[in-house]
Amino acid sequence: MTYRALDEKTVLDYVRSRPDLKQGFSDTTALSAGEIGDGNLNLVFIVRNSKNPRESAVIKQALPYLRVAGDSWPLTRERMRFEAQALLLYNQLTPGLSPKVYDYDEEMSLVGMENLADCEVMRKPLVERQRFPDFVEHISTFLATILFKTSDLYLSGVDKKTLQATYVNPHLCKIQEDFVFTNPYQESPENNWNAEIDAEVQAVRSNAPLKLAIADLKEKYMTQAQALIHSDLHTGSIMVNAQDTRVIDPEFSFFGPMGYDVGALLSNLVLNFGSHYAHTPDPAEREVYQEYLLDLIGGVWEGFAAKFEQLWIEHHSGELVPDAYWKFPGGDTAFATFRRQYMRRLLQDTAGLGACESLRRMMGIVSVWDITSIQDQKLRAVAERFVIRVSSRWIMERASFDHIEDLLGIVREEASAVVIA
Amino acid sequence: MTYRALDEKTVLDYVRSRPDLKQGFSDTTALSAGEIGDGNLNLVFIVRNSKNPRESAVIKQALPYLRVAGDSWPLTRERMRFEAQALLLYNQLTPGLSPKVYDYDEEMSLVGMENLADCEVMRKPLVERQRFPDFVEHISTFLATILFKTSDLYLSGVDKKTLQATYVNPHLCKIQEDFVFTNPYQESPENNWNAEIDAEVQAVRSNAPLKLAIADLKEKYMTQAQALIHSDLHTGSIMVNAQDTRVIDPEFSFFGPMGYDVGALLSNLVLNFGSHYAHTPDPAEREVYQEYLLDLIGGVWEGFAAKFEQLWIEHHSGELVPDAYWKFPGGDTAFATFRRQYMRRLLQDTAGLGACESLRRMMGIVSVWDITSIQDQKLRAVAERFVIRVSSRWIMERASFDHIEDLLGIVREEASAVVIA
User: What is the pTM of this model?
Assistant: First the structure.
């Protein structure tokens, strides 16, 4: 079918025309659809059987331009291919941790998938101080499995490069290159920031050592093809409820540095930590929840690192270092040292790359709901200054990091210095 | 035309059938051909007009298997596409520094190109202590131009990734991954080494810190897509005469770490340096030529670094860091610092990656003519031990390198310790 953007009416006929979508409904005579897209790039419809509202599906279709910038920023619709491929891979490697894909239509740049009606995007419940007992377990499994199993530690060189060739995604890479690693730290018309923190923003923009470090991290993002990364894995790309954790929206996927995915998640938990200076006025209540957030950060890293290394020990089938390479007296110890050094560098990448994602939210094109939902600009500034300080230190001090406690220590130090006027 | 391997007869009809090849000959009734292939992967014919022997062309055709291993190691013929693409790019960006391409036939996996009748592969004249007054100038221009102009320092992110997508070359990458970074340092049936240095070879294979460092360098080779690299740029891939320098055989081309190209060249000059302990028995004569080789190593790096940085200053059009990023008080100094740090890391990569290429020649599948042409196995061992020591130190000490003199100092120190029994 030639591409045409669907609307709430045409999407119904479309669903009826696709066997893999149609089969999810016991009856397609009473379908209804609502558009719920709040993203910038896509149409998102929920299609329901009015006779049985539990029968539903999400239809996500790429628009040929960036919505927030109107028609002025054309984007290739090919990005829906990256999303579909990545979701199908997630379905296969980590079943239950992403929406199930029912159908993918390349011509229409469209994916039909499971409607996660019982889940919500993670930002809001984190602001509401909800807790998710299985989140650490789920997301660390997701991160460890996807990153390990698409890397040179698991795949043959030929298989990895062949897979990588299906994720050449320059246009969406460009968005992150611009909006995470560049424009926020220089004059750029789309930048937005709280007038209360203008001095801090200008200080970042003229902080030479920090900008040198960010340029190094951008080079890593642009050149280091370690594994298939989601590349936008903040808490707005994760849907949760008490039992469930689902990773959504992998349209930015490409082969990049693993630390960017782990880091985006951890730094967005830091962002949420900061937002409670406004959202949770009672200091005791705030501290309890902030401690919970530190537990999440620590738990995600520790869980990820333990599972990643366990996968590595169990499946050292990858091209990077074959088994025979470690067959010498002391070789087992050397292999253990190699893993330890690898995980240490990954922790440092996690800190540096992740902190670029939180830092840019303070001064770039788009902030996050955790912050923008703060009405009082002075209180918002308290949160933002905290995030700027933690992010800057994660970037500048990353070469010394050897344990997640090093990252958490900085959060605690900066938290202890926060003064709410 | 469906693929079929040519022979000395059928290649003549082939040339007559191709307008772009035929036009190089004033008369095609008296063509003759000789096969000169000494590589492992390809047929190479020189086709001449017997009535005017100055009219000639090289016809290079990929075989569907690795010759040295018989039919047992199948290879994709696609590699000739990488060679043709790279040579055409070289022709365009650095005219006169590679053979001119006349014709490329994808179906036949065949490139027709300039016959460099007046040049010879660089190894032999280096063994004969010849000098090449323009070599440093030429090869540093080649390296600086190709590496800079295919990198994120010059190209937009979209252009670079689009170009990179045409160089997905997993099968030839695998050859270097195995034979440069892995198999020589472990038990592997194809390894060959001089019995005189068995102790040194076994010491390398059980040297845990060295093997950890080589594994790190292999990861860099496998993941860091900095620029289009030749990926086999030793002195056997360069043809020279007194006036001319030509880079040949870029079939291993892909987007990898820049330092591998610069390093392969420098480390092969170290290999040649070592070979003169056998090839040049007179100590005074030997020292003079070894000093010349040090001048070449220093000159190539200094010329490369100066030209690369000059290109960067003149054309900072690349995606990595836009001009506006450095527009702040002190920004010019920050940009200069960024360039200096980038070149320093490039020097360290050059040392480490290059030294893997020389080290593997001492204990892997194939040595180099500089060494294999030494008849006396004890003298050959003197050269080989020297190369093992220099290479190991370049790998282990690279993090401290800040200037080419640091690399040269190690060559000098190890040279001063050489004893010829």
Answer: 0.96
